[in-house]
Amino acid sequence: MGPVPAGVLQLLALIAALALAHVPLGTYMAKVYSSDKHWRVEKWIYKGIGVDPNTEMRWPAYLRGVLAFSAAGVLFLYLLQRLQGVLPGSLGFRAIDPDQAFNTAASFVTNTNWQSYYGEQAMGHVVQTAGLAVQNFVSAAVGIAVAVALVRGFALPHSRLRSSGGTPIRTGELGNFWADLVRGTVRILVPLAAVAAVVLVAGGAIQNFSGIHEVGQFMGGSQQWNGGAVASQEAIKELGTNGGGYFNANSAHPFENPTPFTNLFEIFLLLVIPVALTRTFGVMVGSIRQGYAILATMATIWVGFVALMMWTEFAHHGPALQLAGGAMEGKEVRFGVGSSSIFAVSTTLTSTGAVDSFHSSFTGLGGGITMLGMMLGEIAPGGTGSGLYGMLIMAVIAVFIAGLMVGRTPEYLGKKIGTREIKLAACYILITPALVLVFTAVAMALPTPAHSMTNSGAHGFSEILYAYTSASNNNGSAFAGLNADTQWFNSTLGLAMVLGRFLPMVFVLALAGSLAGQKPVPVTAGTLRTEKPLFTGLLVGAILIITGLTYFPALALGPLAEGLAS
Amino acid sequence: MNNSVTNTARLLGAGLRALLVLTLVTGVIYPLAVTGIAQALFNGKANGSEITADGKVVGSSLIGQQGYSLAYFQPRPADGLGENSVNTQYKLILSGATNRSADNAELVTRVKEAKAKVVAENSTADYRLKPSDVPADAVTSSGSGLDPDISPQYAEIQVHRVAEKNGLSVTQVEKLVDDHTQGRTLGFMGEPRVNVLELNIALKDLVAKH
Questions:
Q1: CB contact under 8 A, B37 and A258
Q2: What is this structure's pTM?
Q3: How many CB pairs under 8 A join A and B?
Q4: Domain extent listing, chain B
Q5: Could you give the 3-state DSSP secondary structure of residue B60?
Q6: How many angstroms away from the CA of A260 is the closest CA of chain B?
Q7: Coil, helix or strand for A164?
């Protein structure tokens, strides 16, 4: 078998595994977020936090919870890195510099996981496991919580008929943030990550707390290795669509991703929760078919992008790759071109940003596909939680466009999309492009940022465009030739991550609150059927046109110019 | 005003307490439990898949090494590898790729030079290696710089040189390569590959026995 059919078979195997897994996982997650019961361990946790998990929150309260928890996260992670020099269990590594510590704290709390640092030489055991890995869990749990809050906004009063005499109460309540945070962590992420981590160790990923030790080499001499709790972090790094952690080479490092099987398994992990959340959504709004329509939209874009990526990478245009006879620069032999292409697309269409091969050395068009994936807002299937809420915002926009075409007040899932709702959705989709384009333009206009580029010309511009796209969309992957460990990049990228994470959440929760307070409108013959393939088509079109066109001029200057020249 | 300050402080306190409790769960209990299971069930793998030759540890089967003499099979180039610049009490390898783009002039030169070198080194008195037979992995750097593998094609074109340098027959070395070629997992995952360190250890054994 040639590499192309093998690549296609790996894609099909992945689709089959996701199709099987998303149903029970999605249904389970719906149960987790709808249940009235608390586990005993959760009760202890609530006691520790000092909150009542049964208090219903309206959207401002829910948002305050998200922001307070995240602010505490940034502060704690910043201090942990600044104090590394005096922390025990840190291999004697010194403290991280202030600008890099801010960047990394912002990065891990916002689910971006951009690595401005070299993991192997900078971060000791304590910062890795008690700092970075913890945010890998909780930032993912926050993402899912916000998505679930939005789903409740649509679903009420379907899922919670807390009624007196059968009349649903519409109060604009969205649930309890602390309960959602704790349940997502304890009932979903920790058990799944534990199983996944053991599978990764079985494949060869390391899991120990050894210090740096010296081993002999074949030709004599020796080499020094880092030990570390790598597998346990790798598991949640993929599962929580995080993407950062131990080694500079990320999931290309054999200790993080040792075999072809672990590679496919890691791709599966980074897709499974965002995909399963479409099921959770379907169950919670009381129509599995609505979930399928969203899933079909995500799958269409993902499969299309993978096909394009495989085509351009196997064709390996570009002078160096033509000369080499294949697009193997920055790729590992055990994965090859096919599997690396699937990983690259999956990591940039989710908010993961882990890499098993280096995007900067992909073909010009291949690099463009990874960027476009992020620019679509990472919604196919997107990050844990952020993918679903991003896609639902696009669905609101698509419904609105359809409403304009036929001259009817748009509605989605029985809720009217009025002026307030469409304003909030429009603000949401404007934030990230504004951050990406303004920061990129400013960086290009200033004299010093360009000194960080490894490559010149169109590709040099792409390095900077990629960095701000990745940060603002909370992806975390890079055209890693860019030396981003400068005060300028550490600060502005950190800022882009924070604004790109929390401003959209403000609008999502405000929208959720507004929907939750609405009385549902009955379905009539004139209602747009959002569970039908026609709507999926409309949604795919809206996504590609709206976000695609926003970025077209920037893409034309970078990856398109490079791709078309070769 | 005073009221909202207290409220904010109370909320931040709750956030901090939540973080600390969840740090205990996900940052202490979880990694320790996974480490316990990993160390008990997969001790060798959890500690880096160390590999021994003549009773001595000579590296990890997962971590590619550089610097083999021409009597041995050569690994892929690793131009993206670095050395540590902070915490210099250690001598750490920094994994990494070159990140050079497909149209980067330095990369073009590097591939050209690597190809010429591979052709020159592997052509022997009775074997002429054609540049078009050099596979891509032989002239490009991997993503990690630590790629432990080469493609079977890259191993194949090194057979004549290795046989000649070690006084072995081509068939003997070819068989060695075949024995160490791993196909795709389950027939379709990843790409076929040869682990360079394992192959070279076996080669050394064969030469010693010969």
A1: no
A2: 0.96
A3: 403
A4: 2-43, 50-209
A5: strand
A6: 5
A7: strand
